[in-house]
């Protein structure tokens, strides 16, 4: 839900990559940013759902969305370069990246945690963001207001029992975002944010808290004002890097 007075063309012709765009927060962000004129490059492994979102966005908002079918578990440097090349061929530049894709897989004590699941979670949640950043940053140099938005989690700060690879991947994201922000600050106009959406009604939340009443949890649409602020000129002069739902922006 957009409560601030952003103009209808606020994001017109802005090219924004959203990972994990086929459901949950990623889908909601795709639809809402498209409504404000953005061309959303939707990356996900679920091509069937991406096709549905593509058709809906194209018909409703007349923007120029694009689908990149990619399983982040299998992402390597060659595939990341291909993603960057595809975006360049179709859009020439990139204005923002929203790293939203993540998996939980299971809650387990570390002694029982299997290596196959560990590798999958770390690759999707952390390593893919690192590799894609390497190849996408050069596409953002010509943007007037470039942004990289990582997705954090309180699990990455508290590191509580049974959160396993997910918590560790999010702790890694916190470090990745901070390091990248430091490195880009003096050589680029790219602004890096790390956003903690807090408890939000998603399939992952349901897996982590099966006894929780979902009607008491906020909808992904409640996050949109935070994304719009991070993408807007309003956030250009801020010194904040870590943005947390519920805190003043």
Strand order of the largest sheet: 3-2-1-4-5-6-7
Order of helices and strands: EHEHEHEHEHHEHHE
Helix content: 40-55%
DSSP strand count = 7
Low-pLDDT residue spans:
none
| Proportion of strand residues | 5-15%
The 3D shape can be described as globular
Number of helices: 8
Overview of the molecule:
This protein is of the alpha/beta class. The protein is built from eight helices and seven strands. The chain has helices spanning 24-35, 47-61, 77-91, 115-136, 155-158, 164-185, 203-208, 224-231; strands at residues 15-19, 39-44, 66-69, 96-98, 147-151, 191-196, 242-244. Helix 1 runs parallel beside helix 2 (47-61) and helix 3 runs parallel beside helix 4. The two termini are 17 Å apart. The model has no long low-confidence stretch (mean pLDDT 94).
Task: Indicate the topology.
Elements: E1 15-19, H1 24-35, E2 39-44, H2 47-61, E3 66-69, H3 77-91, E4 96-98, H4 115-136, E5 147-151, H5 155-158, H6 164-185, E6 191-196, H7 203-208, H8 224-231, E7 242-244
Parallel strand pairs: 1-2, 1-4, 2-3, 4-5, 5-6, 6-7
Helix pairs in contact: 1-2, 3-4, 4-6
Key features of this structure:
249 residues, alpha/beta, 8 helices
Summarize the structure.
The protein is built from eight helices and seven strands. With 249 residues, it is an alpha/beta fold. The model has no long low-confidence stretch (mean pLDDT 94).
